[in-house]
Amino acid sequence: MKISVITAVYYNKTYIHDAIQSVLSQRNVDIEYIIVDGGSKDGTVEIALSYGDKINKFISEPDNGVYDALNKGIAMASGEIIAMLHSDDFYTHDMVLSQIVEAFETYQCDAVYSNLYYVDGKNTNKIVRVWDSGTFPPSDFYKGWMPPHPAFFVKRSVYEKYGAFNTLLKSSADYELMLRLIMRHQISIKYIPKFFVKMRTGGASNRSFLNRLKANIEDRKAWQLNHLKPKWYTLILKPFIKVFQYRFFSYFVSNNSLNP
Question: Which domain holds residue 249?
């Protein structure tokens, strides 16, 4: 199975190299790599172009935000599986995508998800938060649960059937997408209990109380768009459970979750 990896980027010459190298270093897997740039003028485009035909598809043009850019990438993708790696993120080792493909082939599922590390922006060996997704039924969306978007891999046929990102939402389109696919349409999913992605801290929805409030409003809209009704506590628990994702670094040193 071929996997299409999409990186949406806008003005990120500092970290785009890490994301690209992370994808190109993957072994034993058929990859189509797509980069969608929003019209950067800071050198990001030049860095991407320096990789030549190692980047299978590349466009640089104005867009309406990251979800619009990702939708462009989905439309361009030819792989049976679609992965999304943001320009601040990178895979934990060089066998991540081969293990993802193996999971799809073994379990014949619609989507696969795994765990994610939040790391310090400058020192990426310093883990500051852990997103341990766990195995949960779709109904646990009521409890504030969701998989981490960069560690959520989906068949292209699912996007073709149920649609891609809703760009009416600015910070919760990934939440709405997973709510729609997993809870509303009940696609088949498989959890892989490994840490496959490292994400630098500083997500847009968490930078301030105002942004968190805006995200909460959009989260509520995500339920409405799917004709679903959350519990009274659902949208309270969603940000609250992040508190339990912070752990001491010694925890990770003592286990083998960093290993392939």
Answer: 2-253
